[in-house]
Amino acid sequence: MSVPNEQMVNGYQPTSNLPSPRRVGLVDVLWTVAMLVIAGIGYVQYSESLDFYTTGTLFGTALGLGFLGWVWPATRWLVGIVAIISTYAVWQYNILGADGAIGRAALAEFQESTFLFKYFLSSTSATMWMVALYFLAIPTYFIATLARSTYGLKVGSALVWSGSVMGFVAFFSRWRESYLINLDYGHIPVSNLYEVFIVFAVFTALLYLYYEKRYNNRSLGGFVMLIIGIALAFLLWYQFDREAHVIEPLVPALNSWWMKIHVPANFVGYGTFAIAAMVGIAYLIKHKMGGDGPNDRLPKLSVMDDIQYKAIALGFAFFTIATILGAMWAAEAWGGYWSWDPKETWALIVWLNYAAWLHMRLTKGWRGPVMAWWSIGGLFITSFAFLGVNMFLSGLHSYGEL
User: Fold this and answer.
1) Distance (Å) of CA 262 to CA 180, 320, 329
2) Model-level pTM?
3) CB 276 within 8 A of CB 375
């Protein structure tokens, strides 16, 4: 089949030979059943404290993990390892606080006197492991790409997987620690900039690993992990300079089940937009160096173009869902679906930017450097919507300021 001339601009050709989705097998069914059974056990144990919406979130998450295990079998190992480590940590915390909250001082004393928690399992220790492993992945990927070392690239992937495990352990440990400090403090850790930067890092890393597997190419790892590294550098500054890791009570407006679904959906969008931008940088570097050739170290231009498109399409879908959920949350918290708050306004700008990107690609056939530059520009717009609004503007979302 001939390719329209406009699709051949800048070396683009339609992507082919990508793996097709697997058929559902017995293991996939058993995995999904196992997730539902575990959710059922959790429901039976904590049913008194679960309302209708939280119950829906619990079983929806189980079904989501079942689907994810079918689409991407490697995540079963991730879920299993995280479950084992986190369950042990939470179990130890439950023994410590069997009668309820124990207070900040008692929790700190336990963590300081218990080797595993001091160096591995407390939320701050696990976070530091995540940061270290993700940082190590950056030069590992770049050096292995330059040296064309398949083994080195596998090591980079292993570092990212390991860092993601520790990020989830930090997430679940912090969740339990918030209740141990004070029952009124208890919350899912997606409520402030410190917590959501961890969510951003882990989500972006896992989304990248999916594309790495999907396209059977690891050479973009250094670029994607670089943006994660920048985010984590901010996280370290935020922790050590502002003591942002200290668990504080929730702002009343955030004490809602909406937070459990609105924030994660948002950060799937943010993560994929970041991936598209970094792949765009790699695209421009390769295009500037002459495009596809026999000595390539990066994927073909057509592959990178396709990754940008798939990432932005996925992120746009989740960002749209998150925006709708945010409007519903706003109606419950503030009495109106939309108030032109700076955060809301910039969320709309982000949405319009990527809607226009997808429109120009799908209807006009735009590809190549112009779309790569647009992806990079989109990251700056998204960054301001995520962080800049909190730094420079005030409004109903001022509880997230630095």
Assistant:
1) 25, 10, 8
2) 0.91
3) yes
> What is the greatest pairwise CA distance in the chain?
71
**113 CB neighbour count, 10 Å cutoff:** 9
3-state SS record for 244-264:
CCCCCCCCHHHCCCHHHHHHH
Question: Does any domain span residue 19?
Answer: no
Distance CA 234, CA 198 (A): 11
Range list of β-strands (E), 239-333: none
* Separation between Cα atoms, residue 94 and residue 78, nearest integer Å: 23
346 C-beta neighbours (distance < 10 Å), count: 19
- One domain, residues 206 and 285: no
Give the 3-state secondary structure of residue 97. coil
Query: Under a CB-based contact definition with an 8 Å cutoff, are residues 122 and 162 in contact?
Result: no
User: Of 204, 130, 135, 141, whose CA–CA distance to 163 is shortest?
Assistant: 130
Domain that holds residue 121: 75-212
The answer to whether the beta carbons of residues 380 and 273 sit under 8 Å apart is no
Q: Which residues make Cβ contacts (< 8 Å) with residue 172, sequence separation at least 6?
A: 82, 86, 89, 90
Q: Cα(25)–Cα(183) distance, rounded to whole angstroms?
A: 43
Sign of the torsion formed by the C-alpha atoms of 203, 207, 213 and 217: negative
**pLDDT at position 2 over 50:** no
Are 184 and 282 in a shared domain? no
140-167 pLDDT per residue, tens: 999 999 999 999 999 999 999 999 999 9
Q: Evaluate whether residue 243 is within a structural domain.
A: no
Number of domains in the chain: 3
